[in-house]
């Protein structure tokens, strides 16, 4: 082989290597990749997330796409690029883009009163009917209360979206429409119903045909009812200081706000579209940029942070970042974009946790060459740890109650105790004891509604750590044991 032929072969091998190896548009070193790998593994261990999928795109190339942990801990199925996750509220960007798409086609205007498309949707503030525009729904300035999420009905029906929107007829607005920001997930369910009314198509079909397919997201679904795949990850919640498998109710009427289902392969395409590499798609870059335009008519909801159309926009130093977090009962996600550099990062996880957000922010920082020193512990984890300790104390107390109750039964059997006559004093004690336990149980049931701004136990059981539900049932059991023990102690007496 001549020297020329050797050089030609070497150049061919190098060309093939760089052609089929993900390109590093940001010129990341192996050291950066190692740091990202190590950071994700550390955070996964801390957060107890069973499975994570991480995607980084840079200047039109997928430069990092890896799975960590398990899609299902029981079967030890690893997370791959095909593993499907619910996106949670990062789904809102799909719905927001669909609205802008319809406006471009002249089928609606964002300045329109929503009643133009849903005539029966009467929304009131302080007893007065108020006009709410499509733009106010997009930017969460409609005045719809954030706790309206608790009223979203469990449903698999074809008209579930309409059923969800109708729950607003029984709720007053929290503020004058257009006056200020209040995040309410149901805003985007209303937008989903608008899309149905305008297109005369079910929401899921429209998004599939007009958003997902043009982008090439052929492995993605609009709602769990569309999924017929063995690649769907199992969902988990934190509970008793470890991951707990949990199957939540189906909220088909909440799909426009939180139930797009996708994987790393398709999310890489979505990120490329968002950061400006949309020339190969039928969705224009101008439309994407419009979806990133923040609503500056109200005060920022966080430091230098405004809401756009399914995205939040924040100014940090000289750079603007576009991001959104998503949390469902058993899944979470986080997308963050730096459009000027055409960088996009996405984190998908099969557990409801804010650690997904922390991981996404950390990965972006590392990719940009920043140093980080972060060990994020989510609020759910902190709550779960406290509740787990309380549960252990309640169980210990319950065991003591059981022991004392059994001892009294034993003493009755051995004739060491006998039934007492119910005199005035004993009846008073029994009444006081019953009222005390009834008060304890009543307080247990109404506390969430009072302390947590209208949340109820049904909602808490679905969304909160499983230890909260365990605390509820263990507290009820301990209270009933205490009630029985009190009856036994007051209603019997020791024999001389």
TrEMBL record:
Pfam families: Beta-lactamase. SUPFAM superfamilies: beta-lactamase/transpeptidase-like. It is found in: Membrane. InterPro entries: AmpC-like (IPR050491), Beta-lactam-related (IPR001466), Beta-lactam/transpept-like (IPR012338). The keyword Isomerase does not apply. It is an enzyme of class 3 (hydrolase). PANTHER family: D-ALANYL-D-ALANINE-CARBOXYPEPTIDASE/ENDOPEPTIDASE AMPH (PTHR46825), PENICILLIN-BINDING PROTEIN 4 (PTHR46825:SF11). Its EC number is 3.1.1.103. Keywords: Hydrolase, Membrane, Signal, Transmembrane, Transmembrane helix. Residues 36-354 form the Beta-lactamase-related domain. The chain crosses the membrane at residues 386-406, 427-450, 470-490. Residues 1-27 form the signal peptide. The keyword Acyltransferase does not apply. This is Serine hydrolase. GO terms for molecular function: hydrolase activity. Its main location: membrane. It comes from Lysinibacillus capsici.
């Amino acid at each position: 082989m001549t020297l020329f032929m050797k050089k030609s072969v070497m150049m061919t091998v190098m060309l093939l290597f760089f052609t089929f190896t993900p390109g590093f548009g940001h010129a990341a070193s192996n050291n950066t990749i190692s740091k990202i790998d190590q950071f994700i593994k550390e955070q996964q261990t801390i957060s107890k997330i069973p499975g994570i999928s991480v995607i980084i795109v840079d200047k039109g190339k997928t430069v990092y796409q890896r799975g960590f942990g398990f899609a299902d801990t029981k079967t030890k199925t690893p997370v791959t690029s095909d593993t499907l996750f619910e996106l949670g509220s990062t789904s809102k960007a799909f719905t927001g883009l669909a609205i802008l798409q319809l406006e471009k086609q002249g089928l609606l205007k964002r300045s329109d009163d929503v009643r133009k498309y849903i005539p029966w949707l009467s929304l009131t503030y302080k007893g007065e009917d108020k006009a709410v525009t499509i733009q106010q729904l997009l930017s969460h300035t409609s005045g719809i209360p954030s706790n309206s999420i608790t009223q979203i009905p469990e449903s698999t029906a074809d008209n579930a979206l309409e059923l969800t929107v109708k729950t607003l007829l029984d709720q007053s607005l929290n503020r004058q429409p257009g006056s200020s920001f209040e995040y309410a997930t149901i805003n985007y369910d209303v937008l989903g119903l608008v899309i149905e009314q305008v297109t005369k198509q079910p929401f899921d079909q429209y998004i599939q045909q007009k958003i997902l397919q043009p982008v090439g997201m052929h492995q993605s679904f609009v709602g769990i009812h569309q999924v017929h795949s063995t690649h769907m990850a199992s969902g988990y919640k934190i509970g008793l200081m470890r991951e707990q498998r949990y199957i939540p109710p189906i909220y088909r009427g909440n799909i426009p706000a939180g139930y797009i289902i996708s994987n790393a392969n398709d999310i890489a395409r979505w990120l490329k579209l968002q950061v400006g590499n949309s020339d190969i798609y039928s969705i224009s870059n101008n439309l994407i940029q419009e979806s990133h335009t923040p609503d500056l008519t109200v005060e920022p909801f966080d430091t230098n942070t405004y809401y756009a159309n399914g995205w939040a926009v924040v100014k940090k130093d000289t750079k603007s970042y576009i991001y959104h977090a998503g949390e469902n009962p058993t899944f979470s996600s986080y997308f963050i974009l730096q459009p000027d550099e055409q960088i996009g990062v996405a984190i998908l996880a099969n557990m409801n946790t804010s650690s997904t957000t922390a991981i996404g922010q950390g990965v972006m920082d590392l990719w940009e060459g920043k140093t980080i020193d972060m060990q994020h512990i989510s609020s759910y984890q902190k709550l779960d740890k406290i509740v787990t300790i309380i549960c252990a104390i309640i169980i210990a107390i319950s065991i003591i109650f059981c022991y004392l109750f059994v001892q009294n039964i034993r003493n009755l059997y051995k004739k060491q105790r006998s039934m007492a006559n119910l005199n005035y004093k004993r009846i008073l004690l029994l009444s006081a004891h019953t009222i005390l336990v009834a008060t304890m149980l009543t307080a247990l049931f109404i506390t969430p509604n009072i302390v947590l701004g209208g949340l109820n136990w049904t909602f808490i059981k679905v969304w909160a750590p499983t230890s909260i539900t365990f605390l509820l049932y263990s507290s009820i059991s301990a209270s009933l044991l205490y009630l029985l023990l009190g009856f036994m102690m007051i209603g019997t007496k020791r024999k001389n």
